[in-house]
Amino acid sequence: MNATSPRAPVIHGDPGIGGLTARLSDLVLERPPGRGWLIAMVVALALAGLLAASIAWLLYRGVGIWGIDMPVVWAFAIANYVWWIAIGMGGTFISAALLLARQPWRNALNRYAEAMTVFAVAVSSLFPILHLGRPWFFYWLAPYPNRMALWPQWRSSLLWDFFAILAYLIASILYFYIGLIPDLATLRDRSRTRGKQVFFGLLALGWSGEARDWRRHETLSLLLAGLAVPLVFSVHSMVALDFSEALLPGWHSTIFPPFFVAGALFSGFAMVLVLAIPLRRLFGLTDLITARHLDNLGRMVLAAGLFVGYSYAVEIFTAFYGGDRYEIALAMNRLTGHFAWTFWIAIACNVVAIQALWFRAVRANPAALFAIGLTVLVGMWFERFMLIVTTLYRDFLPSSWGTFRPTFWDYATLAGSIGLFALLFLVFVRVLPVLPMFEMRKLVQHREARP
Amino acid sequence: MNAPAHGLLAGFADVPTLLAALRALRRDGFGHLEVHSPFAVPGLDEVLSRPREPVHRRIAFWVLLGGLIGGFGMLALQVWSAVLSYPIDVGGRPDASWPAFLPPALEMALLGAFVFGVVAMLAGSRLPKLHQPIFASTYFERASQDRFMVLILADAPGYDAERARQRLLALGAEQIEEVPA
Questions:
Q1: From CA A86, how far away is CA A274, in angstroms rounded?
Q2: Nearest to residue A221, comparing CAs of B120, B23, B49?
Q3: What would the mean pLDDT of A375-402 be, rounded to a whole number?
Q4: Which residue of A has its CA nearest to B46?
Q5: Which of B111, B119, B132, B140 to mutate: most A Cβ within 10 Å?
Q6: CA separation for the pair A220, A225 (Å, rounded)
Q7: Closest residue of A to B45, CA-based?
Q8: Inter-chain CB proximity A235 and B145 less than 8 Å
Q9: Residue A180, Cβ neighbours under 10 Å: how many?
Q10: Which of A220, A439, A447 should we substitute to test contact with B (largest number of B Cβ atoms within 10 Å)?
Q11: For residue A362, what pLDDT is reported?
């Protein structure tokens, strides 16, 4: 049988539930860090330090350290924000939608995909705050009784976005944690040092795995998964409304919410793929995150990418079909103007490069999949940058046209955010099990029951 | 053997043995049983005659309640703030412009459902808990790894430790431990 066929086993070999548990928990409890992890950690720490320095400089000097100015008042920070929160969507979707669709192969992916979501959303939520100008007043977005008797502007999509990010961040942390509790109990029981026993013991909340506890846990997991899917769609629609509520050509469009959701799933799946390939290699998990998983992820990236490509086409078509001269000018400017290269990078990465995924040989080649995943991530960043900047830099009146030139601090903040994400993820793979042990046990048991 | 005991803990190596043992124990009148397993074993509720619907319904109820409180609470807050607390007349447009209030209400409905659901699950299982009597057993550590454990609680009427032990051994228990109270 072909290793990537839909009927290929999702676990190779026969580890048994004890062996599987020992192996996965020893990744956390026993395994020394290893050279690859240490090198990655040093790089991530350096970049996270760069982020800290950028934020400190920003707080001291203000948003003028970035290249933003009239008329391009949104640029890197907002592109980074949309890019990161979109990456988070893919993790929730893989975990929740595939649980609801009863796809058992998801079990190998959901834990680290959920961790990826939590970290990506946490990193993304930094950007709108940093972009505020006076970030220390960000809590004014929250409705609370205050001596100025002021309320937030309820009719602004930017405020809707605040509630969307807040809900998504808390919900994704809860979803991640509920799934972790049984595994934390396993780590508690396998720890041999007092410190680890106390650490995992407190985190496990006293879980004992009684049948009634499992029933509640399963019921809640299903309900939360059912809520997480509409949450993903609504949150990223809210992100899109930040743009489409504005009366600007290129933004003021009803296609934006579904278009953004497709882009979010696209980049999220790509990030899951990009993380899976080094993870399975460094931790020796190729028999659990199998060729079939990579193949399925490749298909999902392709499917989401086709939606994105369709949206690009419809956007341009709508501009000409609608006949509005500003929309047409903007579409022509995106295709041929000063920032056309960003548009064509997005097309090359998000529409052209992914066509290779139609071929089984490409989906069976981890190196090719990794390269395509990275290409998609780059392409999606350029797409957001293109969408934001091309609309802003050509205003309605030629007298108010301008341009955008990124500064060192723009690049530093972007690189630093990648460093912070990598730092969080590297700590995660050392401290928590990267695969959900209890779900993998169930998978093994299920297979043993069917000889 | 006269010290007060919490119960008798027996580990089984696989699910079929566990289910067979549970059926036999219940037939023999061992009423007060707990089962601790490394994953949610399908079919356990039927064997233990524990109805599943009330658990489903109770958690679903709290999730729904959380969603309603979050959603309508957020809607009420916005209407109160925009209509009563600080109305601003913008060209005669209505103060209670409810369509614009729906997006935050939707997000808070989902958040409320999440939070209430998690609290309902933890409260239903009486978690967090720093200690449970069963943690005194070192053998119990395997229940979160690869053994399926049955606990016969000592507080059941007519509990006889020796009889329970013999029965568990006969049913294929791999190891039996008394859990101190």
A1: 15
A2: B120
A3: 94
A4: A211
A5: B111
A6: 8
A7: A211
A8: no
A9: 20
A10: A220
A11: 96
**Which ipTM value was assigned to this complex?**
0.94
* Count of domains for chain A: 1
pLDDT band at residue B2 under the 50/70/90 scheme: low
Give mean pLDDT, residues B66-86. 96
In this complex, do A160 and B34 lie within 8 Å of one another by their Cβ atoms? no
- Whether residue B175 contacts residue B50, with contact meaning beta carbons closer than 8 Å, is answered with no
Q: Nearest residue on chain A to B108, judged by CA atoms?
A: A167
CATH number at residue A325: 1.20.1630.10
CB contact under 8 A, A209 and B81: no
Task: Look at A88-97, B77-86, B151-160 and tell me which has the smallest mean pLDDT.
Answer: B151-160
What is the predicted pLDDT for the residue at B13?
92
In a domain, A419, yes or no: yes
The burial class, CB within 10 Å (0-12 / 13-18 / 19+), for B155 is exposed
Please report, rounded to a whole number, the percentage of residues in chain A having pLDDT higher than 90.
86
pTM for the whole thing?
0.95
Residues of A within 8 A of B100 (CB-CB) are 154-155
**Residue ranges of domains in chain B:** 5-51+132-180, 53-124
CB distance B50–A211 less than 8 Å? yes
Structural domain harbouring A148: 16-449
Which of residues 158 through 177 in chain B touch A, CB cutoff 8 A?
A: none
What's the topology of domain B5-51+132-180?
A: Alpha-Beta Plaits (3.30.70)
The one-letter amino acid at A3: A
pLDDT of amino acid A448: 65
Asked if B60 lies within 8 A of A219 by C-beta distance, the reply is: yes
Omega before residue A71 within 30° of 0, cis: yes
Mean pLDDT of chain A: 93
Poorest-pLDDT segment among A117-121, B90-94, B104-108, B143-147: B90-94
- Amino acid A451: pLDDT: 45
Chain B CB within 8 Å of residue A173 CB:
no
A6 falls within a domain: no
Shortest CB distance from A206 goes to which of B52, B86, B129?
A: B129
What pLDDT is stored for residue A112 in this prediction? Answer: 95
